[in-house]
Structures are given as C-alpha cells and as structure tokens.
Design goal:
Shape: globular
Protein name: ATP phosphoribosyltransferase
Catalytic activity: 1-(5-phospho-beta-D-ribosyl)-ATP + diphosphate = 5-phospho-alpha-D-ribose 1-diphosphate + ATP
Subcellular location: Cytoplasm
Strand order of the largest sheet: 2-3-1-4-11-5
Enzyme class: transferase
Oligomer: single chain
Order of helices and strands: EHEEHEHEEEHEHEHEEHEHEEHE
Radius of gyration: 24 Å
Keywords: Amino-acid biosynthesis, ATP-binding, Cytoplasm, Glycosyltransferase, Histidine biosynthesis, Magnesium, Metal-binding, Nucleotide-binding, Transferase
C-alpha cells in the first residue's frame, strides 16, 4: 500500500482531509484515529504532527506526505516539495519595535526569536548576517517586551497582533508558504500509485479553479464569443434547432466567470449558465 502522512491537527488538517475526500480517498471520522486504511485505493493514511511529516517522509518510512512549505524547510529533512496545494497560505516576516531596524541588514549582533529556527538561521546565513536565533514555541510577540530578543520572525496574516504588541513588520518576506505534497529526496517518479495520487489532487485543484460555462449565441458572433471562452483545448460548439444559433460549452476560470458572462451578454449571447466542476483529469 501507498503510505501517506496527513496533518493530524492545526490549520492544515481540515483542508487536507477535505481535499483528499474530494479526490476519492477514505478519511478518518474521528480526530482520535491515527491510521486509516483505504483498501479500495490501496492507500494507508497516517495522521501525524505537521512538523514531523517531512522527517517521516525523508526517512523512507512513508512514501509521501502533506505539510506546510515552511515546516518542510524548517525541518531540514531530506525531503522535497512536488506539488503545491493552494491552501494554508501564510507569509513569514521579521518584526520589531519602530526605530530598531529597517531590515535584516541591521540585525548584526541582535537576537531574533522565532518558532522556525531552521528557516531564520538559513535566511540570515544566506545574507551573511551575524545574528543570534533563539527558539520559542508560539507567542513570540512577547519576546521583545520581555527582553529575550530585539527582533521576532513569525507568520504574518493581517499584522493586527503585531501592531497590538507595538511592533511593525520590516524587510521583505522571508518565505511565502502553503500546503504542499512532499517526498524523499532521490525518490523516483515512476511509482504508479504516487502518480495516480498526484493526478487526483491536480484534478481537485483544477475543479476548484474552473467552472463549466454554457451559453447560446448567434453564429456570426461565435468568433468573438470563443475569444472570451477559449477553453483548455477549444470549446465545444453545437448547432441549435433555430437556424443561425449555436450552443457553446467551455471551462473558464472561476474567478473571472462573472466578468466573462457580462462580456458574453454584451455581444448577444444568451442562456449563459455556469456549473461547478467536482472532478476532472486534464
């Protein structure tokens, strides 16, 4: 069986299980379940701490896993990203009290507190900055107030918690992270079950990003309409019973669907419909 690691808790856990369910895999019904066997797909899922997943995969005990890009890089494990999953997005940045520093170039001799010691130490080393890094598990905003560090490095979403602590974000983002599929460095691409797994997840990503659009238009306006809805290869065009009219079907990006519908209506298209795509293979 293919052995796959899945986050057992945290912000990645629910979306990861939801995506796997959409991809046709059996998932756990209770959070206490640590292992789920899906005999129909010949897959065994192991629910592990997100921070540990890259390490398990790198050891070869598990074939692939889902974790965060930040957790993969911070672990230092011999594992690599093979597919980005478009959820669990976050930005990793430095923050400090106003006037302390303008960016990493001013960190010389300072101490940076973070929960991601591996990422920060590498970032500083890559830029030739001589600064100390202290590891803290969570609530790093208080490290400056308590005198443990002059700078912190943490995940920043809205920045509200930093502002409430009297801190400001400085410098460019250290890392932009999201959920990713990882495998051991040096693993081959010819494992059929791994390829099937990746195809299924890619199908979910496409299905979430596109909708199917159907509409009717006059034949003389077809080229204009097709320019708006080119589809992936090309749209499907069928003649209607009423002479001079055709029906068109094409996949369009979901985030652009409303604008495309407006543009189609302006050139005379009617009966414009969109439907969700639940699964696909490209």
């Amino acid at each position: 069986m293919l052995r796959i690691a899945v986050p057992n808790k945290g912000s990645l856990s629910g979306p990861a299980s939801a995506m796997l369910h959409e991809a046709g895999y059996r998932q756990r019904k209770e959070s206490k379940e640590l292992v789920v066997i899906d005999p129909d797909n010949e897959v065994e899922f192991f629910y592990l701490r997100p921070k540990d997943i890259a390490i398990y995969v790198a050891s070869g005990k598990l074939d692939i896993g889902i974790t965060g890009r930040d957790l993969l890089l911070d672990s230092g494990a011999s594992a690599e990203e093979i597919l980005a999953l478009n959820f669990g997005r976050s930005t990793f940045r430095y923050a400090t009290r106003p006037g302390t520093a303008n960016g990493p170039e001013d960190f010389g001799g300072m101490t940076i507190a973070t929960s991601y010691e591996g990422i920060v130490a590498k970032h500083l080393a890559d830029q030739g900055i001589d600064a100390s890094v202290v590891h803290l598990d969570g609530a790093v905003e208080t490290a400056i107030q308590l005198g443990v560090a002059q700078v912190i490095a943490d995940v920043v979403e809205t920045g509200t918690s930093l502002r409430n602590a009297g801190l400001e974000v400085i410098g460019e983002p250290i890392l932009t992270s999201e959920a990713v599929v990882v495998r051991r460095h040096g693993a081959t691409d010819d494992h059929p079950q791994v390829q099937q797994f990746l195809r299924r997840l890619q199908g979910v990503l496409v299905a979430r990003s596109y909708v199917m659009m159907d509409y009717d238009c006059r034949a003389e306006h077809l080229e204009q309409a097709v320019a708006l809805t080119p589809g992936l290869e090309s749209p499907t065009v069928s003649p209607l019973h009423n002479e001079g009219w055709v029906a068109v079907r094409a996949m369009v990006p979901a985030k652009e669907a409303q604008r495309i519908m407006d543009d189609l209506y302006e050139i005379g298209a009617r009966a414009i419909l969109t439907t969700a795509i639940h699964a696909c293979r490209l």
